């Protein structure tokens, strides 16, 4: 298929306009076939950009440029018509100004390269919740990753109409006069990187980065930043949430979504292996959930992605065995270390490497006798990734591609909080749940910052979507309230909970790492309580902060004795700690949103303070 064969006039005109601006040597319309995938892989291997892995069938290792290893928040823009529409937590540039700058960069940017046209679907093909886009890119790496992360290729064309989302991407490194990459990852200098969303136009332009969500435009750019705008316009929710399927010993099923900031165990929870007998957790999605009301008045969710773009370091048989198995074949690895026998390795994988390793920068070094490295000397970059097909996950739910989605019974929020926040508590109603989502955050530790003055402060990440919301966060809170108000039957809305796996007591030598809760598979004990609460079971007490488990309501059979001793402490209301929390929210968090902060949330904060003072 060629550009001339594209039947949709709007799509064809847009592609031709971009070809004229970017001036690629050739244009290839991707068909999404295995033959195409293998041909593009061979191009990357022959160019010295990818290494086949002997230990993992049909899998390859890429190394990026050290300047291009993660999302670049300072170069990510919401180019709304007004700064107020973008809100106080987004980087804003006037759209006309940004387009002028980027058109200058795009002019001739694909010299010496191929422009690939990728038609793709976010969600199961034909789903009433799915959306469609077309990404233009000059990166084979992007095509390969998009092939795993989305439903891409020829099968998508019959669903694409004039409402497609146009996504333009270039690595920003033209090859003139016969130049070659010579095995070097192509990207532009940091100051020339632009990851730009134009919310009023439903348009995405990305330039200068070839990495992750900067370049795989179906991921954060479309599935969250632009989709959050579409969701607001159309009355649904586009969320940075896992989706899991929970089955009790009686065979009853409930579906749960959850939003957690980075490093809070989100993917581990999505693929959890329960420690309590008879319970089963299956994965519907590990990162993003789109939710719409079904005909029966319940919220139904789809996972808009087709793969996992997972953080490799810290993924082990203990933390996430299912993720390791999902990435055992047909997987792209980026910035991991390479072993002598043709496998990948990273810090926290659960075992030391042997012999010599080629680190993520391409240097050969002796392996260490453990699976940790000094900070700054890691063999795998801390943000090293694996891109694996979701269908390869051993715990993938049979209905994960259900076109109508799965009905959601519970929504979880959580952050990394060593004090104050209990193991679990439930909101009293939908708006109280919105309040809990609005205050999500993690405590800043010495390990997570170079600014010692910030240690102990709370880094708020409302709904775990702060970097990914395409408009004013205050209006986003209001949208959640509006969705609750739009429910035909409020009793059918998901119940909302706040969990915290990370309470600490560093003075208790019995506790591994000082953590007062074991986490991982034992989080199934909390899921059991949540499951029963969704059925209205009388297993709770009313407290100033919401509903909490009654004494004995959390199953402790088989739990280590030292955790049984700490459980009452992490199921208490820390009144003084919560008073400090209220003060921080009132003085440092909510004022950011000004007149856009819904009055309902201020009222709930006032009510919380009054309950704590009784």
Automatic annotation (TrEMBL):
Keyword Coiled coil attributed: no
Active site residues according to the UniProt entry: 264
Swiss-Prot/TrEMBL keywords: Cytoplasm, Decarboxylase, Gluconeogenesis, GTP-binding, Kinase, Lyase, Manganese, Metal-binding, Nucleotide-binding, Pyruvate, Transferase
Known pathway: Carbohydrate biosynthesis; gluconeogenesis
Enzyme Commission number, as recorded: 4.1.1.32
Cofactor binding, note field: Binds 1 Mn(2+) ion per subunit.
Annotated ranges, domain Phosphoenolpyruvate carboxykinase GTP-utilising N-terminal: 14-232
Cited InterPro entries: PEP_carboxykin_GTP_CS, PEP_carboxykinase_C, PEP_carboxykinase_GTP, PEP_carboxykinase_GTP_C, PEP_carboxykinase_GTP_N, PEP_carboxykinase_N
Main location group: cytoplasm
Residues binding Mn(2+), per UniProt: 220, 240, 287
Any single biological process term in GO: oxaloacetate metabolic process
GO molecular function: GTP binding; kinase activity; manganese ion binding; phosphoenolpyruvate carboxykinase (GTP) activity
All copies of domain Phosphoenolpyruvate carboxykinase C-terminal P-loop, residue ranges: 236-611
NCBIfam families with a match to the protein in the record: PRK04210.1 (NF003253)
Role summary: Catalyzes the conversion of oxaloacetate (OAA) to phosphoenolpyruvate (PEP), the rate-limiting step in the metabolic pathway that produces glucose from lactate and other precursors derived from the citric acid cycle.
Assembly and oligomerization: Monomer.
HAMAP family registered for this protein in UniProt: PEPCK_GTP
Protein name: Phosphoenolpyruvate carboxykinase [GTP]
Organism of derivation: Treponema berlinense
């Amino acid at each position: 298929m060629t550009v001339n064969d594209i039947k949709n006039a709007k799509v064809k005109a847009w592609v031709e306009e971009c070809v004229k601006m970017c001036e690629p040597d050739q244009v290839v319309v991707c068909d999404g076939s295995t033959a195409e995938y293998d041909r593009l892989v061979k191009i990357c291997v022959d160019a010295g950009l990818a290494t086949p892995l002997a230990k993992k069938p049909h899998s390859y290792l890429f190394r990026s440029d050290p300047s291009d290893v993660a999302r670049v928040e300072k170069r990510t823009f919401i180019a709304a018509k007004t700064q107020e529409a973008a809100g106080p937590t987004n980087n804003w540039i006037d759209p006309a100004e940004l387009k002028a700058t980027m058109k200058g960069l795009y002019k001739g940017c694909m010299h010496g390269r191929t422009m690939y046209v990728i038609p793709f679907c976010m969600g199961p093909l034909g789903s009433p919740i799915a959306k469609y886009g077309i990404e233009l890119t000059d990166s084979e790496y992007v095509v390969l990753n998009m092939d795993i992360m989305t439903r891409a290729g020829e099968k998508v064309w019959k669903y694409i109409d004039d409402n497609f989302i146009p996504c333009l991407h270039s690595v920003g490194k033209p090859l003139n006069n016969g130049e070659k990459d010579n095995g070097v990852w192509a990207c532009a200098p940091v100051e020339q990187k632009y990851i730009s969303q134009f919310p009023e136009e439903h348009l995405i332009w990305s330039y200068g980065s070839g990495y992750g969500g900067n370049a795989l435009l179906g991921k954060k750019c479309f599935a969250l930043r632009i989709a959050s705008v579409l969701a607001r316009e159309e009355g649904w929710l586009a969320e940075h949430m896992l989706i899991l399927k929970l089955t009790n010993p009686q065979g009853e099923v409930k579906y749960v979504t959850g939003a957690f900031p980075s490093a809070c165990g989100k993917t581990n929870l999505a693929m959890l292996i329960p420690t309590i007998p008879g319970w089963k957790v299956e994965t519907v999605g590990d990162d993003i959930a789109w939710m719409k009301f079904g005909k029966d008045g319940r919220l139904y969710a789809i996972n808009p992605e087709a793969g996992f773009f997972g953080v490799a370091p810290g993924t082990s048989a203990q933390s996430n065995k299912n993720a390791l198995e999902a990435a055992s074949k047909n997987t792209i690895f980026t910035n991991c270390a390479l072993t002598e026998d043709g496998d990948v390795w990273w810090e926290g994988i659960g075992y030391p490497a042997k012999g010599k390793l080629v680190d993520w920068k391409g240097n050969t070094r002796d392996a260490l006798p453990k699976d940790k490295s000094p900070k700054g000397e890691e063999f795998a970059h801390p943000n090293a990734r694996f891109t694996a097909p979701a269908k390869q996950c051993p715990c993938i739910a049979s209905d994960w591609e259900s076109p109508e989605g799965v009905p959601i019974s519970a929504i979880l929020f959580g952050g990394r909080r060593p004090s104050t926040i209990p193991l679990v508590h439930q909101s009293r109603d939908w708006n109280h749940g919105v309040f809990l989502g609005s205050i999500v955050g993690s405590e800043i530790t010495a390990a997570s910052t170079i600014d010692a003055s910030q240690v102990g402060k709370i880094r708020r990440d409302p709904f775990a979507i702060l970097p990914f919301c395409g408009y004013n966060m205050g209006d986003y809170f209001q949208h959640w309230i509006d969705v609750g108000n739009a429910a035909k039957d409020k009793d059918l809305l998901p119940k909302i909970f706040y969990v915290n796996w990370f309470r600490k007591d560093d003075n208790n030598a019995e506790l591994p790492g000082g953590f007062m809760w074991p986490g991982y598979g034992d989080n199934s004990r909390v899921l059991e309580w949540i499951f029963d609460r969704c059925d209205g079971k009388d297993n709770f007490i009313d407290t100033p902060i919401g509903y909490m488990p009654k004494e004995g309501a959390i199953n402790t059979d088989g739990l280590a004795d030292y955790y049984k001793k700490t459980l009452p402490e992490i199921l208490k209301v820390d009144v003084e700690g919560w008073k400090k929390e209220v003060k921080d929210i009132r003085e440092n968090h909510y004022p950011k949103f000004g007149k856009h902060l819904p009055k309902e949330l201020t009222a709930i904060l006032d009510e919380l303070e009054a309950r704590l003072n009784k």
